[in-house]
Amino acid sequence: MTTASLSSAAFATSVSSSFRARNSRTSLPSNYQNPLRCSSPPSYRPLSGKLYPVKATLLQEDEEEVVVEKSFRTKGFPGNEVEEGWESRANSSSSDLERWVIKVEQSVNVFLTDSVIKILDTLYHDRDYPRFFVLETIARVPYFAFISVLHMYESFGWWRRADYLKVHFAESWNEMHHLLIMEELGGNSWWFDRFLAQHIAIFYYIMTVFMYAISPRMAYHFSECVESHAFETYDKFIRAKGKELKEKPAPEVAIKYYTGGDLYLFDEFQTERAPCSRRPKIENLYDVFVNIRDDEAEHCKTMKACQTHGNLRSPHSYPVDGFEDMPGCMIPEANCEVLLEGPKQSFQWSNWNLASD
Question: Where are its TM segments located (predicted)?
Answer without folding.
Answer: 195-214
